[in-house]
Write a structure and sequence with these properties.
Largest sheet: 7 strands, mixed
Mean pLDDT: 76
CATH class: Mainly Beta
Helix content: under 10%
Number of helices: 2
Number of domains: 1
Low-confidence stretches: 1-63
Shape: globular
Length: about 260
C-alpha cells in the first residue's frame, strides 16, 4: 500500500450531485431529537456483536425532516460484499487497525404523515482506513486494487435495521473526517450521502494509535465544503462504548 502524499486532495470529492438519484421526489431522514435508538443485526451476515449496545423498540416519530444527499466521491466500488463486519480485507485476511465503531442504520418509509419500517433496503458503507487510504482503487496512486477492506453492504431486517462493525475513519488532505453510505431500494431508488463526526471526539480518538502516527489533520468540519452543505444534519452522535464507539443514523424514504 502506497503512502498518502502530504498534499493529497480529492478534487472530485467536492462535486455536488444534487438531492436525489431517482424518480422519487423526496428522500427524508427522521428527525434526530426524540427518535428511538434501535440496534439489531441485518439480513445476511449477522456477526456484529451488539451485546454492549442499548436497544429500544419504540414507535417511530411521525415528524421527518429532509436531509441532503451529498457527493458519492470518486472511490465507490460496488463490491457486492454482503457482510456486517467490514474491517477484514477478504483478499488477504488482514484486519484494518483502528478504534472499533459499531454503526447502525434504521430505514423507514413515510406514508400518511407517519413513518414505518422498510425491510430489505440495501445499505452500502465505505470509507478510508486510519491512514486515509481507500481499498480497491489506484486513484491517486493508492495501489490497493484487489484489496477489500472497509467496504460492504447489508440489508435491513424486519425492523428496518442494519448494523456494521468497522473502525473510526482516518483523515486525508482536503476533507474532514467522514464516512460514505448509499441506500438502495428494491424498486431502484438510490440515495447517497456522507456522515461526519464531532471534532472534539475525533481529537480524542486521534490521540491513540495508529491515528497518532500521522500528525494533526488538515481539515475540520467548519472548513469542509461538503459538510457545510449539510450543516449538522449528517453529524453522527458517536459515543464511547467499551474500547470503541457506537453510533446510529435514521433514514426515511418517501416512496409515496
Amino acid at each position: 500500500m502506497k503512502p498518502r502524499s502530504a498534499n493529497f486532495v480529492f478534487d472530485e470529492d467536492d462535486i455536488t450531485i444534487g438531492e436525489i438519484y431517482s424518480r422519487r421526489k423526496a428522500l427524508t431522514v427522521l428527525a434526530g431529537a426524540g427518535s428511538a435508538v434501535f440496534f439489531g443485526a441485518c439480513g445476511g451476515d449477522s456477526s456484529v456483536d451488539l451485546s454492549a449496545l442499548t436497544a429500544t423498540n419504540e414507535l417511530l416519530p411521525a415528524s421527518c425532516v429532509v436531509r441532503p444527499a451529498l457527493t458519492e466521491g470518486p472511490i465507490f466500488v460496488d463490491e457486492q460484499a454482503n457482510r456486517s463486519d467490514i474491517r477484514t480485507d477478504t483478499s488477504n485476511g488482514a484486519t484494518s487497525k483502528g478504534a472499533a465503531l459499531a454503526l447502525s442504520f434504521r430505514v423507514s418509509t413515510l406514508a400518511d404523515n407517519a413513518c414505518g419500517v422498510l425491510e430489505g433496503a440495501q445499505i452500502d458503507l465505505w470509507h478510508c482506513d486510519a491512514f486515509g487510504i481507500y481499498s480497491d482503487t489506484d486513484f491517486e496512486n493508492m495501489g490497493t486494487v484487489g484489496q477489500k477492506f472497509l467496504r460492504g453492504h447489508q440489508f435491513t431486517d424486519a425492523n428496518g435495521v442494519c448494523a456494521f462493525t468497522t473502525i473510526y475513519p482516518g483523515w486525508y488532505d482536503g476533507r474532514a473526517v467522514h464516512l460514505h453510505f448509499k441506500v438502495r431500494t428494491t424498486d431502484g431508488n438510490k440515495f447517497t450521502s456522507q456522515l461526519f463526526f464531532d471534532p472534539v471526539l475525533t481529537d480524542n480518538v486521534y490521540k491513540t494509535a495508529p491515528y497518532n502516527t500521522r500528525g494533526e489533520r488538515t481539515v475540520r468540519n467548519s472548513d469542509d465544503g461538503i459538510y457545510e452543505e449539510s450543516g449538522t444534519t449528517m453529524l453522527l452522535n458517536a459515543q464511547p462504548v467499551g474500547d470503541g464507539y457506537e453510533a446510529h443514523f435514521d433514514i426515511t424514504l418517501d416512496l409515496t
